[in-house]
Amino acid sequence: MKYFFVFVLFFTALLYSQPNEKTDSTSYYSSLSNSNIQNNNYKDALLYTQKAILFAEKNKNIQDQAVQHFNLGKLYHDLKKYDDAIKSLQKSSDLYTDLNPSHNEAGTYYYMGLCYMAKQNFDRAAMYLHEAKTIQTLLKFPDTAELLTLQRGIIYKSKNKLDLALSVFKTIIAKPDNPNLSNTKAEALYQTGSIEALKNRNNLALNYLNKALDLNSKADNLEQKSNILLALSNVYEKMLDKNNAYSYLKQHLNLKERIAILNNERLGIDDYTKFKESERLKEIIQTDNQLKEQEKANKFSKLISILAIALISILSLLSLSLYKNNIIRNQSNLLLREKNKELEIAKDKAEKASRARSEFLSTVSHELRTPLNAINGITHLLLEENPKKTQMDYLSSLKFSGDYLTKFINEILEINKIESHNIEIEYTSFNVKQLLTDIQNSLKELAFVNNNNFILEIDPAIPDYLIGDPTKLSQIILNLINNALKFTKNGNVSIIAKLENLDHPTATLYFEVTDTGIGIPEDKLISVFDSFSQGSIEVNRKYGGTGLGLTIVKKLTQILGGQIELSSIVGQGSTFSFALAFKISEQLLTAEPTPKIDYDSKLLNKKILLVEDNKINQMITKKMLLNKQIICEVIDNGEDAIDLVRKNKFDLVLMDVHLPGINGTIATKTIRKFDTSTPIIALTAISLHENREMLLSFGMNDVITKPFIPEEFYTTIAEYI
Fold it and tell me: How far apart are CA 70 and CA 92, in angstroms?
């Protein structure tokens, strides 16, 4: 549901504040359009807005064209013609590209966001609403902050992130009463009541919905009132209060009929068809004018052609002397074409070999995860059973080997993911200074092991908040520092972050990781970035490692728009450096920290269904659940899992993705047809062709990757219990 009371007030005020202009001007037609909107006469409003656009185009006034296309898009939005609205608003957005940021430009992005929300495309909606917020923050116009916050909450709700949505709506509800905020606050109360109803907290839902209805009475928002009445009817029906359910349903239906009548009065179907036809005729006229201009150009071209023929006649005599040269050149071209074909064939073969390599590595790493899950799981269980001191060293070595192999497999998948272009850049607001400080704190223990002095230098001129991909930046820096600390003993390792260039709204940062370690030979400075390369066999044997870290660093740096540089002297140390550009964020959207879950008490005596066909994994997972006093039932196929969930109540289902018969995704999709509340968590050794979003689309609540870390395993289960 899209409510934009504050935006409407603001942009209406802008339109009516225009000075009186002479007739046949953009301002004159715009004022006529606004007058007809006030009288609910959208037929003439569309007509005058189109005239305003034509006048602005005639005078080549980019500012007026942008404003009037925005006005036309807003009219289409009000008429629920969302595709036409997006088309007009996109024209407005394109025109604003060369203009200074303005409130109307923010309005353009805001209404595009609303249109995409109406079309259920919430990712595109979130993108445009973020653009609107960025401009409004830049212009220091806070009156629409709650309105944009409301839309963010509605998007969370649409994606079933109900707890996040509730936290957003409650921040709006907590705001002091304000006439300009009534409509937004009423919507937040309605959305909160709807979520509470979904959670079967009916009394709480009634409380919010009644408050929403009371606040709605202070504003003339019929569609909002209709939705509140329907929600109240549904809640009373769930509570078996048939009288109230029927009463509110009747009010809702009467109001829907009234809204339909008002919409029909606003613009009839024939009126809209005629307007679109007039637009089509206008385009035909423009095309006709272009054809006439083309005709003139063609006549000029004919004259040029005649002169060219005369010139060609003269030059043809010279062409005879070049005939032999042409024959030789043609033969050369033929030879080149043949060579090009050979190169294309070689290129195709190389691409097929690369794809085969990626598929092979993905398959191998995927197939290794199942036995590796057994190794890590059994090691964890044995370590929990108070082993003898003599056994502890063996188990610790086994755990180290399992963790090492897990890291190796994850790095292979990361390389495959990058090379298959199956990786996306995230754009989020983050504090780069805090990010680097956290990385330093997390690696202090590793620095202590090798007796290294670990230094962090951050330029205070770096803006506090930037927009970029903090996850990939962390991967790059962590890999570089891990290498520096590993190959340096009794020395210095330093991280330097400097502001290289500031050109608002972009800041270019320079990062440098320097160590005083073993260094890299000059002939290895390029190959060290290749997969499975560590400079020499001796280095690999002495220090260990997969040889994939720097490959990931190079590829991620390129994806983020940078270039990794390396300088090194054997025995003196190495320096890795790169520069990246970030947008400056005016405000960081901070999320409240997630409290640590006491999963021991939360999991006690809970009933969990484990769907797993591998006997070893069955034994390990069941034992881990029993260790937390969980009641566990095991089934080895999807068909029986569906039947069991249909007949029994479980607190949670652990669903293996790859099962005999129907797989875990289809089983989950089937369960969701009759049970939408029981949490289902996927257990999978994710391969190159699987991803978290794909699995969640089948109705799973979360994904646990094999081999799983016990702490994360218990925490994830406890979160959904």
Answer: 5
Say what the pTM is.
0.41
Give the burial class of 595: count Cβ atoms within 10 A of its Cβ; 0-12 exposed, 13-18 middle, 19 or more buried: exposed
Give the angle 492-495-498 at the CA atoms, nearest 5°: 140
Local confidence band at 157 (pLDDT 50, 70, 90 cut-offs): confident
9 HSE (CA, 13 A, CB side): 12
| C-alpha distance across the termini of the chain, in Å | 31
Q: How far apart are CA 67 and CA 73, in angstroms?
A: 10
| Residue 138 φ then ψ, to 5° | -60, -40
Burial 675-686 (b: 16+ CB within 10 A, else e): beebbbbbbbbb
Determine the average pLDDT of the residues in 179-194: 86
Q: Which among 502, 510, 497, 495 is positioned nearest to 583, based on CA atoms? A: 502
Q: What is the 3-state secondary structure (H, E, C) of 101-130?
A: CCHHHHHHHHHHHHHHHHCCCHHHHHHHHH
Which runs of E-coded beta strand occur in 483-572? Answer: 492-503, 506-515, 565-569
Q: What is the pLDDT of residue 13?
A: 44
Where do runs of H (alpha helix) occur along 217-268? Answer: 222-238, 242-266
Strand boundaries in 366-488, DSSP class E = 428-430, 453-458, 466-468
Residue 154 sits at the vertex; the CA angle it makes with 149 and 159, to the nearest 5 degrees, is 125
Task: In whole angstroms, give the CA distance from residue 307 to residue 301.
Answer: 10
Calpha distance 56→63 (Å, rounded)? 8
